[in-house]
Amino acid sequence: MLRKTMIAVSVLVLAGAAWAANKEQERLENCGVVMQEIINVPDNIPQELLEKAECVIVFPSLTKVAFGVGGSYGRGAMVCRTGPHFNGPWGAPAMYALEGGSFGFQIGAEATDVVLLVMNDRGMASILDSKVKLGGDASAAAGPKGRTVSAETDAYMRAEILSYSRARGLFAGISLEGSTIRPDNDANADVYGRKLTAREIIMGGRTRTPESGRHLINVLEKSAPRNESEHHENQ
Fold first, then answer.
1. Smallest Cα–Cα separation from 100: which of 78, 132, 73, 75?
2. Which of 76, 141, 202, 222 has CB atoms 3.0–4.6 Å from 59's, for a disulfide?
3. pTM
C-alpha cells in the first residue's frame, strides 16, 4: 500500500513539473508572438532605439493583482546581446517577473503587453541578480514611439530602461516607475530543465536557446541584428 502511495505521489509530482514546464514554454513562445506583433505596428518602437538596446524584456498579458490599489503582475522573458561588449548576436532568454506599480488605464484590459528596452550596461547589470525598483534602483522612462526619434530629449536618452505597452490595439510609451523587475529562476528551471540563474543564461554564453524561444530571438535578429550604439561601435 505504501509503495502504491509513493508511486502515485511520484506520478503527481512529475505531472506537476511537466505542466509547469509546458506553461513556461508557452509563455516564452508568446513573448515572440507579442514582439513580432509590436514590430509590425506602423508607429512602433523607433528603429534606432531598438538597435542601441542591449536587452529586450517582453511581458505578455499583464494582469491586475487582487490586492493593493492598481498593482499589477506579469511574467515574461529577457533577451540580451552576447559578447563581452554586448555587440554580438542575441542570446538565450532568461525568464523574468514584473510586479507592483500602477500603470494607468491600460492595465485592466483583457491583455496588456509590456516591452522594456535596456539601454546600457548599468541597466542590464542591475537586473541580472536581484529585484530592481524602476525609478529607484534603475532609471526608467516611457519610451518614445515612431519610426525615428525626432528629438533626443534627456528624459529617455539618459534612461537605463525605456518602457512600452500595448492594450486594446493602442501602442504607447508607459511609465513603470514604482514597479519591480526580478529574475524568475523557478521559471528558468521549467524552461531549461535544470536550475539556471538569469546571470548564467545571459552572461555564460553556453546556454542553448530552447525551441520555444526561437521565435523571439529570430524577431530580434531580423529587426536589430547589430548593436549600433556609439559606445559599442568604439569597442
1. 73
2. 76
3. 0.83
Per-residue pLDDT, 154:
53
**At a CB cut-off of 8 Å and minimum separation 6, what does 30 contact?**
60, 61
Would the CA dihedral through 3, 4, 5, 10 be positive or negative? Answer: positive
| Rounded-to-integer distance, Cα 59 and Cα 103, Å | 14
> What is the spatial distance between Cα 177 and Cα 101, in angstroms, rounded to a whole number?
7
With bands split at pLDDT 50, 70 and 90, how would you rate the model's confidence at 141? confident
pLDDT tens, residue by residue, 83-100: 877 888 999 999 999 987
> Is the alpha carbon torsion for 18, 19, 22, 23 positive or negative?
negative
Question: Which grid coordinates are listed for 21?
Answer: 514546464
DSSP string over 178-192: T-EEEE-HHHHHHHH
Q: By C-alpha distance, which of 223, 226, 193 is closest to 210?
A: 193
For residue 216, give the C-alpha cell: 523571439
| DSSP-derived pairing of the beta strands 55-64 and 140-142 | unpaired
Q: C-alpha distances in angstroms, 142 versus 105, 126, 145?
A: 15, 19, 9
